[in-house]
Amino acid sequence: MVAALAATGFRPTALQAGTPPDLIAREGVLQLAPANYPETQVWGYNGAVPGPMIRLPQGARMTRRFQNELPQPSTIHWHGIRLDNAMDGVPGLTQDVVEPGATFLYDFVVPDAGTYWYHPHNRSYEQMARGLSGALVVEEAGGGPEVDNDEVLLIDDWRLAEDAQIAGGFGDMHDWAHAGRIGNWITVNGLGDWRKPVQQHSRHRWRLVNTANARIFSLEAQGLGGWIIALDGMPLDAPQPLDRLTLAPAQRADIIVDVTASVGEEAFLVSFERDGGYAIATFDVTAIARSERLDAPSPLPPNPVPQLGPLETARKAALLMEGGAMGRMGGAMMGGQMMGMREMAGAGKVWAFNGMADMPDEPLVAADRGETVRIDITNDTAWPHAMHLHGHHFRQIGSNGTAGPLRDTLLMDRGETAQIAFVADNPGDWLLHCHMLEHSAGGMMTWLRVA
Ligand code: C2O
Ligand code: CU
Fold first, then answer.
1. Which spans are transmembrane here (predicted)?
2. For the whole prediction, is pTM greater than 0.90?
3. Which of 174, 251, 384, 442 has the fewest beta carbons closer than 10 A?
């Protein structure tokens, strides 16, 4: 494999014996908007957006000393990693918040190869909107597929004011009750105009990560032909032809693409919005790598995720998602009391899970270790949601009983019901929440306990 780390602008962080590298959440500046605008004040890991890329071999130990230099408490969550519960980064559930000026040592093993990422899990609707997130890539133990170039494309959505600074209003209840904080400026790896030279018939592995607060991307590759080989870090049994690709907040897709455009032409990664499509990444075809396209890639080796047990005897739970604008919900339980929607909004809640707007004292489900768990989820709201389960990957079960690919985040459309199933093999307390960050803060959060 020809890794092209140097070309990505990321520096891989090497682990020195004895001293874990620092990951410092702090202020930084970035030329986020076009060059005729001022630089933007951001919050980044080590001051950078995206944060330092962490690249590790499968089965390795990930050790970082997190230092919080933000003006508010924070933690780091390692999204999609099936890690030790104490390292999951959830304040009040798996650890205390890391106060400004304090540090916390994250130390865990990465069992699965694939594309993951890290981000704060306290006031994430503000901390991530200000820029805090980074990629965590775990390399296949036997080496990845043969490619000319392997890189991460972190796709983000920013809400910028006229002066190119990050707009305030993080607690805007209108955003919270609607689609979340949708921005007005899209970047790839922190750049509004991400561009690089490529060669015709060269092969690339792109690891796409949606780090936006709330925006759902609908992507298409033009002048490129390819396959999806993994979703949310987990290999697909068979590569799927790359067509329109939907990437909800927190979701990832590993794609293999061959440049099919000719020398002198451009190839694009295009994002489709209501008002049409536009390029978020541009590739200038400057030379020819080889005379013909390579053969279709083989599937990646599977990760060591346990097989589902029989669903008939699985431990079952039901989750009803309600609330938000244009919904039917009249109110929900908050602090042990029934509250109307207006009262709830005054207290910062606009959604509910099973009739409760705050984090319940009791888990949605308590499973024995190794048990198969089945959750029936109903989205009785007027909005799509991106449901994320910590510490496990699940499969969506179709109406005919078929099991979909392993995922950690499921996009559910308005009015949709879904059944998910997973083996509860990782002991501890794990969140299940909407990854549209204004929605989880606004009431869409619950948890599971695995004994
Ligand atoms: Cu990426 Cu609980 O989140
Ligand atoms: Cu949501």
1. none
2. yes
3. 174
